[in-house]
Amino acid sequence: MDDKFGPDLAAVISVLQTALTPAFLLVAVGSLLNVLTGRLSRIVDRSRDLQRQYAQTDGKAHERVVTELRIIEKRMRVVGRSILCAVLSAISVCIMIVVLFVMGLTNISAAWIAVAVFMLALALLSACLFQFVHEIRLATYAIYVPEEYLELPAPKERKRRKAVERPGA
């Protein structure tokens, strides 16, 4: 380090190279946040659709709407927690980059702080991913397929459908 003019070019380049790896983690977390906010947007849209259906349904259909609204509410909370963990992870990575710069450009040695903050970032990212998987499981649980779509038609009806689908065959 040059006391008169600050750190020398080699020290700055070294710090930049060291800080590059955590920056890639920031890009990954940013991409994950993009996916999560997209899912949250879809959940909100679905919630609005179900709220419109709420007053227009009764019987079994109304029960399905209410059940799905309950699941949607859980999904919103889970995605919210996942987004929070991702943002906190990104902030931790930023703090770690600052610590790396301070260590590289001064005589301060705080490697344990950088390691601890990096481990915190990874733990928060792991929590985010666990919440993401939980939300996906809730989403697949909420899918309702009416029974009549799951049953095959009788053999005679299948032949009739094939003849209609392929006239002249």
Structural class: mainly alpha
Strand content: under 5%
Identify the quaternary structure here. single chain
Q: Poorly predicted ranges (pLDDT <50, ≥5 residues)?
A: none
Instruction: Summarize the amount of helix as a percent range.
Output: over 70%
* Main sheet properties: none
Order of helices and strands: HHHHH
Count of individual domains = 1
Total DSSP E strands: 0
Rough outline: elongated
Q: Rg, please?
A: 27 Å
* End-to-end CA span: 85 Å
* Average pLDDT over all residues: 86
Per DSSP, the total helix count is 5
Molecular structure report:
This protein has helices spanning 9-54, 59-105, 111-142, 147-150, 155-165. By secondary structure, the protein is mainly α. Helix 1 runs antiparallel to helix 2 and helix 2 packs antiparallel against helix 3 (111-142). It is 83% helix and 0% strand. The chain has one domain.
